[in-house]
């Protein structure tokens, strides 16, 4: 695009600190940081020193030196207290991510990767039970939001730098992928309940962005097709971009004016591109326009990543102010064990994510939603939009009669005008015939001198009125056709609800069809059960790793025995790993069963889709008939007003015609008597 309109970004509030029995000056400087990068640096230093402190003094949950730590939970505003120094670390880490998100949403937009890194470290290294705003679901949502916004920043820069169209399309497609992940989290009922009122605002913005950046991706795919002189592909990509942008515009209702301006600007660009491409292809290139689903999909290019957080990096934390308190050997050994646990988690997560990716791609290709796989419930009720129209007509019982009467009055006036104009035309034709006879009798071609002049004016006006009548006659015919089209529907809507319901199509399924549906639903439920179990096992593994602290054992273990101790301690994870392996292994069989069930479901799906299409079409037709009523009444009244005026003029013209014809006849008689 010639310029790069900007969409607003989501940023997170910082948590407020309460009680923590730590040096007051240190505490104040760490929790009341300025909203800039200096504040980020202060939080990192404080986080590092807390890490050094907790590795030497037993200030964790249930330990001897634990003291109350209080912070405010973001969504509820309630104070949450834990006697655990790791809670202080977790809250500081959350604020580090929130502050980066705040800075990233400003004009320079450079910090979301750091925000994603802070939330990722918090999710992977701390318990999720401290408070709602640090639950696994909320942190995963934050990570995807921040990665999406970081990719969005990269997209803006790429467009400003005029990077290649295909690269820009892939970058934009990845923005869409990140926001889809965020949207899935926002649509999760548990996440929605945690977020409260803010969930709807975030969901609306993210959904709008999904369609907007999908439009940007297809715009640049169209530009690439243009560069490759694939003019048919160019048309379909620009058409798709236009369709997706229109969806974004629908979802942008209630968004600030800056969003509306960005959408209008983008509409000017995409609309112009599409109109130009279509016109060129229609009149110059004549290339076949392929279906969009026959073209290769745009694969996202994830060019941003969560920047890692290392709380012990001396460059960030400065010197360890607690270095002399305890020997570092136990701390070093604990760090090594933490790395072993992290390695175990990475290995397991790699397998889970690989299987999840296959499962997600498979389910996306199937396009099967367990909640709406048959849609049979919708046929049991009249839809609300139709009920609304029925209710409106029930308090206006004379709707159909008024419309019919109005059209009858219009027809009557129309007939009167037509009769008057026909009589005028007949009078003029008769007079013209008599005039020709007179000329033949007298042997004169030109009109006789002294002929009455009024007939020419009458003829001219009659021609004008006939022309008006002819044009209005077409409109009148169209109006009657429209009335006849909608009259039956209006009678149906104003009648008993049982008749309305009977007029709506319903599916007719055989017992075999119902069995196919039940089998498909059962397997889809099995897929969801497999997903839920996998998530539960993953959560158990994470929590088990978080709680696994062997520092006490390390202090009393000889250095040479550390490896053996690690191996013994890691065996506690074997049972969970077995359960996860079984879950992952079951996926292939479940998907095979789903494939077979889907093949049998194909015919039922087609039949249900056809019935749903007919049902929607019928509903739309009935609603359209209701909405056409006022327009028909208005046009009918306009027609009556027009013909009433024309009737008056035609009646006067008829009187003039009669008088003029009589005068003309009298004139002819005078000539004959000479």
Automatic annotation (TrEMBL):
InterPro entries: ALIX_V_dom, BRO1_dom, BRO1_sf
Keywords, in A-Z order: Coiled coil, Cytoplasm, Endosome
All copies of domain BRO1, residue ranges: 27-359
PROSITE patterns named among the record's database cross-references: BRO1 (PS51180)
Organism domain of life: Eukaryota
Segments forming a coiled coil: 417-444, 520-547
GO biological process terms, semicolon-separated: early endosome to late endosome transport; endocytic recycling; protein transport to vacuole involved in ubiquitin-dependent protein catabolic process via the multivesicular body sorting pathway
Cytoplasm as UniProt keyword: yes
Subcellular location(s) per record: Cytoplasm; Endosome
Main location (coarse class): cytoplasm
GO cellular component: endosome
Protein name: PTN23 phosphatase
Lineage: Eukaryota, Metazoa, Chordata, Craniata, Vertebrata
């Amino acid at each position: 695009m010639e310029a790069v309109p900007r969409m607003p970004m989501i940023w997170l509030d910082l948590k407020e600190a309460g009680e923590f029995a730590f040096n007051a000056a240190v505490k104040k400087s760490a929790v009341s940081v300025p909203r800039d990068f200096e504040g980020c640096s202060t939080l990192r230093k404080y986080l590092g020193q807390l890490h050094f402190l907790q590795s030497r003094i037993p200030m964790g949950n249930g330990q001897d030196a634990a003291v109350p730590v209080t912070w405010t939970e973001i969504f509820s505003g309630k104070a949450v207290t834990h006697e655990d120094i790791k809670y202080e670390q977790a809250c500081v880490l959350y604020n580090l991510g929130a502050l980066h998100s705040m800075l990233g949403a400003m004009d320079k937009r450079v910090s979301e990767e750091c925000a994603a890194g802070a939330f990722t470290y918090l999710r992977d290294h701390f318990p999720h039970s401290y408070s709602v705003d640090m639950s696994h679901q909320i942190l995963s949502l934050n990570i995807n939001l921040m990665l999406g916004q970081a990719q969005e920043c990269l997209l803006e820069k790429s467009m400003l730098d005029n990077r290649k169209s295909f690269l820009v399309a892939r970058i934009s497609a990845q923005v869409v992928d990140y926001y889809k992940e965020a949207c899935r989290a926002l649509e999760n009922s548990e996440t929605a309940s945690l977020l409260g009122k803010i969930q709807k605002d975030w969901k609306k913005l993210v959904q709008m962005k999904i369609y907007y950046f999908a439009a940007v991706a297809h715009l640049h795919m169209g530009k690439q097709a243009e560069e490759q002189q694939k003019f048919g592909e160019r048309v379909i990509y620009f058409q798709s971009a236009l369709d997706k942008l229109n969806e974004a515009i629908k979802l942008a209702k209630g968004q600030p004016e800056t969003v509306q301006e960005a959408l209008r600007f983008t509409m000017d660009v995409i609309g112009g591109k599409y109109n130009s491409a279509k016109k060129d292809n229609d009149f110059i290139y004549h290339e076949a326009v392929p279906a969009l689903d026959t073209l290769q999909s745009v694969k996202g290019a994830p060019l941003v990543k969560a920047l890692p957080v290392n709380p012990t990096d001396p460059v960030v934390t400065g010197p360890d102010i607690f270095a002399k308190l305890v020997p570092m050997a136990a701390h070093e050994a604990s760090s090594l064990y933490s790395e072993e646990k992290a390695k175990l988690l990475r290995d397991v997560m790699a397998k889970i994510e690989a299987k999840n990716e296959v499962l997600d791609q498979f389910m996306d290709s199937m396009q099967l939603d367990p909640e709406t796989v048959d849609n049979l419930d919708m046929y049991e009720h009249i839809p609300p939009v139709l009920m609304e129209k029925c209710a409106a007509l029930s308090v206006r019982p004379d709707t159909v009669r008024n419309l019919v009467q109005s059209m009858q009055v219009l027809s009557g006036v129309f007939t009167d005008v037509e009769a008057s104009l026909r009589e005028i035309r007949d009078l003029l034709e008769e007079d013209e015939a008599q005039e020709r006879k007179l000329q033949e009798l007298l042997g004169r071609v030109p009109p006789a001198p002294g002929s009455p002049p009024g007939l020419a004016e009458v003829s001219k006006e009659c021609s004008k009125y006939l022309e008006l009548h002819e044009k209005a006659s077409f409109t009148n015919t169209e109006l009657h056709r429209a009335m006849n089209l909608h009259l039956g529907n209006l009678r149906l809507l104003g009648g008993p609800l049982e008749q309305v319901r009977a007029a709506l199509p319903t599916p007719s399924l055989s017992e075999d069809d119902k069995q196919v549906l039940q089998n498909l639903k059962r397997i889809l439920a099995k897929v969801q059960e497999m997903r839920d179990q996998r998530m539960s096992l993953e959560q158990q593994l994470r929590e088990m790793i978080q709680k696994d602290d062997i520092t006490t054992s390390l202090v009393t273990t000889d250095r040479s025995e550390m490896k053996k101790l690690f191996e013994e301690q890691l065996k506690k994870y074997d049972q969970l790993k077995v359960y996860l392996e079984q879950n992952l292994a079951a996926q292939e069989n479940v998907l095979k069963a789903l494939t077979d069930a889907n093949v049998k479901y194909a015919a039922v799906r087609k039949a249900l889709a056809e019935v749903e299409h007919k049902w929607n079409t019928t509903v739309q037709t009935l609603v359209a008939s209701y909405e056409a009523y006022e327009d028909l009444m208005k046009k009918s009244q306009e027609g009556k007003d027009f013909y009433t005026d024309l009737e008056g003029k035609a009646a006067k013209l008829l009187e003039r015609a009669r008088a003029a014809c009589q005068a003309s006849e009298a004139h002819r008689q005078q000539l004959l008597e000479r």
